[in-house]
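Thought: the user wants the 3D structure for the chain below. I'll pass the sequence to the structure tool as-is, report back what it returns, then summarize two notable features.
Action: structure_tool
Action Input:
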Amino acid sequence: MTKPTADTESRAPAPAAAAHNETAVLAGGCFWGMEDILRKVPGVIDTEVGYAGGSTASPTYEAVKTGTTGHAEALRVVFDPSKLSYEELLEKWFFRMHDPTTKNRQGNDVGTQYRSAIFVASPEQRRVAEAVKARVDASGKWKSPVVTEIVEAGPFTAAEGYHQDYLAKNPGGYTCHWIRE
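Observation:
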């Protein structure tokens, strides 16, 4: 997690992950809408919006929004696997809250920073992510192939404070996320 700077709001650090908690890093378009949905899911302990998947050290929103850093707007989700499995998080929530068939786009948001990606932190997360992606792709729910990337998790940089819990602070703000049946 990056330290707040003078131009960002302070935010308490994410709770230390207990031995039984797990962390997922997901990207599926604008991080505001993803966070607003997932922070309310039973079993989710904490959410934090930020940047993942790029090569720029210490990315900022101003840099990421240009699409030149390689980073995606992403969400770090700490969850209790006894209440919500990684598989359920992906299949029941992640793959239903965005369109995983549009490469580098969600709604009006266009660019690599809005790509669909699962940043895996272990061989087990990769195995589960690939199995869920294959099931979703084969389900016939989507008219086009699922293009979600499954890549190794690298550094995650927390977004500026004003992005954290944005839609909770700004009800009615922009989002292109909803749960699709």
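Final Answer: Structure generated. The helical segments are 31-38, 61-64, 86-97, 123-138, 166-169. Strands lie at 22-28, 44-52, 72-79, 105-106, 109-110, 116-120, 149-152, 156-158.
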